[in-house]
Amino acid sequence: MKLQRILTLLLAGLLALSFAACGDGDSAGSAGSAWSGQSSSSQSSTSNSESSDRAGLTLRVGMDGKFTDYPWEYTGELNDAGVVPPAETIAALGELTGWDLSLADEVTNGKGGMTVTFAKSCAIFTGPPEQQKEAFHMYSADQLAATVLDSIRQTLNTNYGGTEGLDVYFCGPDGGDLVLENLGVTISSTQPYTAFPSPEETGGTVQSALEEKVKDEDHTSESDYQSPAPELGSISHSVYIGRQSNYFDTYDLVYDGPLTDAGVIPPKELIDEIAALTGWNLSLGDQVYDGKGGMTVTFGADCVLFTGPPEVQNEAFHVYSAEELAETVLDSIRQTLVMNYGGAEGLDVWFCGPDGGDLVLDNIGVTISCLEPYTAFPG
Q: How far apart are CA 60 and CA 253, in angstroms?
């Protein structure tokens, strides 16, 4: 009996050990499953993160060859070619400006370029929205349509055209010609778009934003308003204000003063126009000289580069520090000279201090060499 009792106890102990081992195995399996699930979740998160890419775009807004550039970061998915889908670039342009640039189809490749098919709800059919962004305010349906088409064409060329450029075709919602009945304008879908039809071609009046703004501010009626006729010798041109690290705003002006012997606007006059527009003292120590394959600008001792922002500023051109002002002044002058005189080959611009040597800005601890063309403000 005693032996039977001992055997029974031993058997019970063995069974207990067996169950404990099985329990440990289940716990290990549960732990393994939990770890596998966390790993899967982590991999899924990584996969989702990798499917969204960052890419830099340049959005160009304007018309008639006058455009302002806006850097834009795209964070969506890239196409099979590893670039931002063109439709997303147009959508970014719409987001920037506040215009409805909805499309009826994807932007397609073919005919040596890209084809853009607009939806019926697009702003080119409906005109300017009631609520507009001040920076992109449009005063008429024809101005909006011209700006939209020119901006999309220029933006697609800048981001996808490469060195050879890119033909862009525009279509209506049905895939045929782009018919703007509200303007009496038809854009062929079989020919690459080059420019919005002129008033002579359409019988309309595609007016510049500057003319529309003057009319609006003067409260002149449509029937009383006429575009100012250019005087003999008048030259239309643009000045550019901004920073290379951000973007430039374009201002269209008309110069009526004396021209140089070469029949162009004296470069100093363009700098004076920037000063008049912004309210900054951009006095020069000498004339702007040609040479060394470019132009040399010598600043006067009382220029704002040395004195910093004025106490009373033009709100539209308000700067918050001497560094921001100096960078904006130099970048704006360089951009204006390059765009007006550089041609296809560009133009080197040198900056000098009042003594004709290096441009030394003691107030911000910056020196710009007068022996090297200016390219960018020191970071």
A: 20
Radius of gyration of the chain from Cα atoms?
32
* Rounded distance between C-alpha atoms, residue 135 and residue 281, angstroms: 25
- CA torsion sign for 345, 351, 352, 354 is positive
Q: What are 277's two structure tokens?
A: 């527009």
Amino acid occupying residue 348: D
Reduced to 3 states (helix: H, G, I; strand: E, B; else coil), residue 96 is helix
Q: Where are the beta strands (DSSP E) in the chain?
A: 55-63, 66-74, 108-110, 113-117, 167-171, 178-180, 185-187, 235-242, 248-255, 289-291, 294-298, 348-352, 359-361, 366-368
* Beta carbons of 262 and 225 less than 8 angstroms apart: no
Q: Which residues of 117-145 are buried (b: 16+ CB within 10 A; e: fewer)?
A: bbeeebbbbebbeeeeeeebbbbbbbbbb
Q: Report the sign of the C-alpha dihedral through residues 33, 34, 35, 37, in that order.
A: positive
Residues in the chain: 379
DSSP 18-50: HHHHHHHHHHHHHHHHHHHHHHHHHHHHHHHHH
Asked if 86 contacts 156 with a C-beta cutoff of 8 angstroms, the reply is yes
> Could you tell me the two tokens for 50?
């990798």
What are the structure tokens assigned to 126, written together? 């409906």
**Sign of the torsion formed by the C-alpha atoms of 62, 67, 68 and 74:** positive
Query: Letter for the amino acid at 179?
Result: V
Residue 203, CB-side half-sphere exposure with 13 Å CA sphere: 5
Q: Token pair for residue 201?
A: 């071609």
Specify whether the CB–CB gap between 94 and 100 falls below 8 A: yes
> Is 90 strand, coil or helix?
helix
Q: What are the structure tokens assigned to 154, written together?
A: 């220029």
- For helices 141-160 and 86-97, the axis angle rounded to 10 degrees is 140
Q: Which pair of structure tokens corresponds to residue 363?
A: 């107030």
* Range 45-52 contact pairs with CB under 8 angstroms and sequence separation of 24 or more: 51/77, 52/76, 52/77
Profile the chain (379 residues) by mean pLDDT over runs of 10 residues: 48 48 39 29 36 78 87 90 93 95 91 90 91 86 92 92 85 94 90 81 42 42 39 73 87 86 88 94 89 86 93 90 95 92 82 92 93 90
What is the model's pTM? Answer: 0.45
